[in-house]
Sequence to fold (421 residues):
Amino acid sequence: MNVLLIGGGGREHALAWKISQSPLLKKFYAIPGSPGIADFAECVADISINDNAAVVAFAKEHAIDLVVVGPEAPLVNGLVDALAKVGIKAFGPTSDAAQIEGSKIFAKRLMKRHAIPTAAFEVFDNADAAKNFIRAHGAPVVVKADGLAAGKGVIVAQTVDEALAAVDEMKTFGAAGNSIVVEDFMDGEEASVLALTDGETIIPLIAAQDHKRALDGDRGLNTGGMGAYAPAPVVDEKISALVTEQILEPTIAALKSEGITYRGCLYAGLMIVEGQPKVVEFNCRFGDPETQAVLPLMESDLLELMADCAGGTLRGKKISWREGSAVCVILASGGYPKAYKKNLPIDGVSKAKALGALVFHAGTKLRGCELLTDGGRVLGCAATAPTLREAVDKVYRAADVIHFDGMHMRRDIAAKAFARA
Ligand code: GLY
Fold:
């Protein structure tokens, strides 16, 4: 199979690492790829992932059998639809299905119509109406921009004043913030359940837990995710069954009943409230950094499963998993998620690998042979081990031999799992 991977972050590096192990793989390309992905695929940096015509032309020219789309923007932007028009299969939903992430209002209304558990909410298309509602309703509440806002469009407000300020902040997200969702705050423990689906069959992956805040103890600003581990014990067997029965299956069925076939990865961001899973948000793609913790434990051939999702042949397939746990710790630029420096030399990646870690590139670039920082999240250091404790120890031993000026990591990835035990 000739495969084209779209994207260049840590999630896509993990996807490339896993896809490269498939005996089905023939030629492998990535747009734009990264210095890490370049170990597995030919990277093509001069095509924009949002230029559907250029990506389609590349896929035709290189006889691509399957396009794997990593990030949400090209999915919402209709890349899978454009590929389908010329008969090229893709792993990822079409633009109407990707609305589940592209529009918070679409997702919330879908859940309400089909009684899928989520927080109560109201929708507003002007700030004054949202503020009047918040003053009457009180806090805590969650204020969300309707559209894609690069992971920044969600603000958890503990007080009415914070919520009013959050409404004003929605303006900074441009068109994404023209409409606003205000929803009830859910108090519980978060988890991420990603599932593969061909629109009929749904296979959940092992549950993971992300760490969205910049600092230990879930303090500081929200980030794209500072680390993840899997399997997350908060999703025990009973909750896992509820997630499938009450959330994943009804969501795919709800979309189908409204004329939308969802194919690809459906990411359910959950809050487990008193033993009941409720949807915080849906994403239309793999999670980052959850993917970097989940895939190292997957035994099955991911490429085969992705082709089954794209081709509608997932029925009867199973995913097998290695015993043990995996942890991914993000090494971020100093200052992230606010302003940070780029072009700083990175040392120690080979040493970390020699200690048994996988090192996924999230924001790096090469200057000659020198590896430099090129983003807020720079690297994801991941490790597997028979127990979560051993995986945590191993991953931090490896992360500690990597260095760039200002490097920041959380030290408490997986602490909630230990607290639970
Ligand atoms: N881990 C959060 C996300 O992928 O959106």
